[in-house]
Amino acid sequence: xxxxxxxxxxxxxxxxxxxxxxxxxxxxxxxxxxxxxxxxxxxxxxxxxxxxxxxxxxxxxxxxxxxxxxxxxxxxxxxxxxxxxxxxxxxxxxxxxxxxxxxxxxxxxxxxxxxxxxxxxxxxxxxxxxxxxxxxxxxxxxxxxxxxxxxxxxxxxxxxxxxxxxxxxxxxxxxxxxxxxxxxxxxxxxxxxxxxxxxxxxxxxxxxxxxxxxxxxxxxxxxxxxxxxxxxxxxxxxxxxxxxxxxxxxxxxxxxxxxxxxxxxxxxxxxxxxxxxxxxxxxxxxxxxxxxxxxxxxxxxxxxxxxxxxxxxxxxxxxxxxxxxxxxxxxxxxxxxxxxxxxxxxxxxxxxxxxxxxxxxxxxxxxxxxxxxxxxxxxxxxxxxxxxxxxxxxxxxxxxxxxxxxxxxxxxx
Length: 413
Prior knowledge:
Layout: H1 4-13, E1 19-20, H2 30-45, E2 51-58, E3 61-72, E4 77-78, E5 85-86, H3 91-104, E6 125-130, E7 135-139, H4 146-151, H5 165-180, H6 184-190, H7 209-221, H8 225-237, E8 258-260, E9 265-267, E10 289-290, H9 292-303, E11 307-308, E12 311-312, H10 316-322, E13 342-344, E14 349-351, H11 354-357, E15 366-369, E16 375-379, E17 384-390, E18 392-393, H12 399-409
Parallel strand pairs: 1-3, 8-18
Antiparallel strand pairs: 2-3, 2-17, 3-4, 5-10, 6-7, 8-9, 11-12, 13-14, 14-15, 15-16, 16-17
Helix pairs in contact: 2-12, 3-7
């Protein structure tokens, strides 16, 4: 584990945005926080997870930061606090913040049709009946709006869960697109080849909507998505290690990606593991790599209602608007919720009723996770940010639920 003195020295060297304190000064019990290490060590010692970083901040100061296990099982390199991780869908809140920055500038409204800027979006048809081989479609009853993209109610899909006839078409289309190596603009131009699973606004469906949002940001801002992120979010917040690829001189800091294969861990291969070069397609839905430190800077900015590292990215009311439930009662509980009692805001899940969620967090907490079992959340009521950063695809373990409980059981004031 990262010892306290080493942690203080490292944070000083890294110019960490928050001050380190003893846990008791922040309302935590040191002995109870130690249970986090004990639980995470069981995962690493038993070979279920190679390694991870856990971090908790409260009142703008760090109460807990530990490393567990190794970055790479073959070399045995110990996990480090500044390990670079694939954050996958934790990219989505960043893309959503970028969109809201343009919203604040008056570039569009929530109900603006996306086709105003992306004419391809008017070409969609909507599934009506049939099978992937013989599908009947109907026209759009209403245009897809910016709000639909931010709330995953546009009718788009990912296709990986295969619970709808459109999913098979989407998976086949995605495979062909990957082989073609399109740019984000080319990808979007081809996207209407796959019909929507439902009419916009009528259901929640986890999807490529945030990738479309990324292209919208490019068109409206006149910058590539990576340039907008860098100029408007990463540099102002001091997120020096976040981007769409890992520089050559930093690759030793990249944690290895593993998959749960039923018998232990297998090293992940293929496009999901590749981060050594800039991708041909800048995915606002899942393309970024980051560190625990960098993502804390982003999450702390949200907790501070839009301000971080001495810079204001969003107004307080905009952050509050993002962190409210935006789904109508008929759409709750939404299909991606891990339990009843959860709502969905603009790019983040929102806790409406902790008891129904089966968690100890507070009503109004919000956050999101990624495919490699990473997760962050912000609890405004407790003035708290928590992150857990492993690199495990297809995790069959209740790691995130356990971590939630471990964080809050240690909070005694």
